[in-house]
UniProtKB/TrEMBL annotation:
<dbReference type="InterPro" id="IPR052896">
    <property type="entry name" value="GGT-like_enzyme"/>
</dbReference>
<protein>
    <submittedName>
        <fullName>Glutathione hydrolase-like YwrD proenzyme</fullName>
    </submittedName>
</protein>
<feature type="binding site">
    <location>
        <position position="447"/>
    </location>
    <ligand>
        <name>L-glutamate</name>
    </ligand>
</feature>
<dbReference type="InterPro" id="IPR029055">
    <property type="entry name" value="Ntn_hydrolases_N"/>
</dbReference>
<dbReference type="InterPro" id="IPR043137">
    <property type="entry name" value="GGT_ssub_C"/>
</dbReference>
<dbReference type="GO" id="GO:0036374">
    <property type="term" value="F:glutathione hydrolase activity"/>
</dbReference>
<dbReference type="Pfam" id="PF01019">
    <property type="entry name" value="G_glu_transpept"/>
</dbReference>
<comment type="similarity">
    <text>Belongs to the gamma-glutamyltransferase family.</text>
</comment>
<dbReference type="InterPro" id="IPR000101">
    <property type="entry name" value="GGT_peptidase"/>
</dbReference>
<feature type="active site" description="Nucleophile">
    <location>
        <position position="358"/>
    </location>
</feature>
<dbReference type="GO" id="GO:0006751">
    <property type="term" value="P:glutathione catabolic process"/>
</dbReference>
<dbReference type="InterPro" id="IPR043138">
    <property type="entry name" value="GGT_lsub"/>
</dbReference>
Length: 563
């Protein structure tokens, strides 16, 4: 397999007036743009893109995974969203797992059928169209682009082909064959090879015609339960039919004249807000982009917030999260004081294992509504189990549960697991007199990279004046925690200076530099659309506040598209 991947092309930001879609697959971006041109709004287009990504990038996302969305309503200025995360099977209690001989030290393998939680994405798609769509197009029409891609086939893109093959190999190493609907003659498709998925086309068609019951009851639900039970899991038809998504009230924080919106816990959106709150205490612009001081402060702030996030973030129905205390700026000031400029902190609380396969995309329509959407199957194809004749694999979100009694993420029947996926929106801060104007839809996928990624690309624009494409192009930093060695490490992408790496080592960080080629996927893949060029330091609030500016991550296959 070709593991070489160079980053040599240059991209301008995409600029347009009426509507814009940015996603990690060009074909999916086209499908979304089509919906906008046919009269659908940002929410309709987002679901069309979601479904098209399920077809074109199944190692990142699909109907067997979860989804979250945030929606900005341009007529009210309100941000709301949908929680599309599914629960563990009701019968899957800690006692049940211990009865099977599993312990915190010897849990089921990540790909085990016991790690499959109820897929929340299909309900989230239906509810997004129902609650936030403009009802000019039916769900069937919204999903038709994805159905066509699955039915007719599409050439697999380069980065998608790479991850497809890697996950097939990882599953094989774990003793599992990926379901045949997602292979061609037992192999992952290569870049440029045309892949068809008629079973998924059928599943999406039925979802388009009948809505949620087509997935959570009947043939698809039965096939899900069958494949899970044949592999030792205990999900029932009732677990599926009792699933529903929930409307959520996003949480936000103000940072120097902008307001960042993230989904509430149990997502890790909270981590992005806490991170910004800590960073607000430092003169970042004066430290210089990707300088040793800047990266040191960023890394320390990430470590502080991840320690908090992992302690407090679980299913709020099962634990009480001191949200107000955590989001209070005085709390972050205290945390910021723990950071010393010349030495990395010792003794920080640990984390959970990470997965990273998620797609993120965003859409802004001609009325100025925005939809920020994310979904995933967690680790590649998730469990790798493919229900018969359905064309998608089942997620393994349960892998972030622990069997340690009294831990906030301890397994329980009917519990939602720790979630690594988050979409985000940026507005002006709300005032009494005026509805907050939309400034951007943005996101960076990739497990624990997401809050770190959101904040880095946001600061690239806000503090360092980069346009959305430059903000995504700039080399990133990923702070990782390794449970096995109990060590934090700082991974620096190719493009960060060697002297910077050396200076960070001198301050006590364990630094990996440079991260190159396909390994750069750990820095996530982001998409950004901004309304106006508020990030530009030279033309403050220019003449055309309604021009859309978009960028798409060079680490992915995708592009932004507008009209
Ligand atoms: C989830 O990901 C799949 C695969 O990329 C995509 O088709 C689907 O549209 C996404 N779902 C949502 C709700 O984003
Ligand atoms: C925005 O909010 C208004 C007022 O609640 C509502 O009438 C309208 O349908 C909403 N628009 C969308 C696209 O959801
Ligand atoms: C998901 O829904 C549950 C309600 O069942 C809620 O408690 C939780 O906060 C939601 N999570 C997110 C990320 O919105
Ligand atoms: C619900 C469940 O059993 N989750 C397990 C999935 O796999 C991880 C990692 O192996 C375990 O820690 C979980 O307990
Ligand atoms: C610090 C920490 O969380 N360590 C855990 C890493 O994972 C092993 C089991 O895989 C646990 O026993 C440790 O407690």
């Amino acid at each position: 397999m070709d593991t070489h991947l160079t980053f040599s092309s240059r991209r301008s930001p995409v600029v347009c007036l009426h509507g814009c879609v940015a996603s990690s697959q060009p074909l999916a971006s086209s499908v979304g743009l089509d919906i906008l041109k046919r009269g659908g709004n940002a929410a309709d287009a987002a679901v069309a893109v979601a479904a098209a990504l399920a077809v074109t990038e199944p190692s990142s996302t699909g109907p067997g995974g979860d989804a979250f969305c945030l929606f900005y309503n341009s007529s009210t200025g309100e941000v709301t969203g949908i929680n599309g995360s599914g629960r563990s099977p009701k019968a899957q209690t800690l006692d049940f797992l211990e009865g099977r001989g599993y312990t915190a030290e010897a849990p089921p393998s990540p790909f085990d059928a016991l790690n499959i939680t109820v897929p929340g994405a299909p309900a989230c798609w239906c509810d997004t169209v129902q609650l936030f769509g403009n009802h000019k197009l039916s769900l069937r029409e919204v999903l038709s682009g994805a159905v066509e891609l699955a039915e007719v086939g599409f050439p697999v893109a380069e980065v998608a082909a790479h991850h497809w093959a890697n996950w097939v190999a990882a599953l094989r190493d774990a003793g599992r064959e990926l379901g045949g609907d997602l292979l061609i003659d037992g192999h992952a498709p290569k870049c440029g090879q045309v892949f068809r998925n008629p079973a998924l086309a059928q599943t999406l068609k039925e979802l388009g015609e009948l809505g949620k019951p087509a997935f959570y009851q009947g043939r698809v639900a039965q096939a899900i339960v069958d494949v899970i039970n044949q592999n030792g899991g205990v999900m029932t038809l009732d677990d599926l039919s009792s699933h529903d998504s929930e409307v959520i009230t996003p949480i936000s924080t103000d940072y120097k004249g902008v307001c960042l919106w993230e989904p509430p816990p149990n997502s890790q959106g909270l981590a992005a807000l806490l991170l910004l709150n800590i960073l607000e205490n430092f003169p970042l612009k004066a430290l210089d982009h990707n300088s040793p001081d800047y990266i040191h402060v960023l890394v320390e702030a990430v470590r502080l917030t991840l320690a908090d996030a992992l302690r407090y973030l679980s299913d709020p129905e099962h634990v009480t999260i001191p949200l107000e205390t955590l989001l209070d700026k005085s709390y972050s000031q205290q945390r910021a004081q723990l950071i010393s400029m010349d030495r990395a902190m010792e003794d920080l609380e640990p984390g959970l294992m990470t997965g990273s396969d998620t797609v993120y995309f965003c859409v802004i329509d001609s009325q100025g509504n925005a939809c920020s959407f994310v979904n995933s199957t967690y680790m590649g194809f998730g469990s790798g189990l493919v229900p018969k004749d359905c064309g998608f694999s089942l997620q393994n979100r349960g892998a972030s549960f622990t069997l340690r009694r009294n831990h906030v993420n301890c397994v329980a029947g009917g519990k939602r697991p720790y979630h690594t996926i988050i979409p985000a929106l940026l507005t002006e801060p709300a005032t009494e007199s005026q509805k907050p104007r939309l400034l951007a839809a943005l996101g960076v996928m990739g497990a624990f990279m997401q809050p770190q990624g959101h904040v880095q690309v946001l600061l690239n624009m806000l503090e360092f004046g980069m346009n959305p494409q430059q903000a995504l192009d700039a080399p990133r930093v990923y702070v990782a925690y390794d449970n096995k060695t109990d060590q934090w490490s700082v991974n620096l992408e190719e493009g960060v200076d060697q002297q910077v790496a050396e200076e960070l080592r001198r301050r006590g960080h364990k630094v990996n530099w440079p991260i190159t080629g396909h390994k750069r996927s750990q820095f996530g893949r982001g998409q950004i659309i901004t309304v106006g060029d508020w990030w530009s330091s030279s033309v403050r609030q220019a003449d055309h506040p309604s021009v859309l500016w978009a960028g798409s991550d060079p680490r992915g296959d995708g592009c932004a598209h507008g009209y």
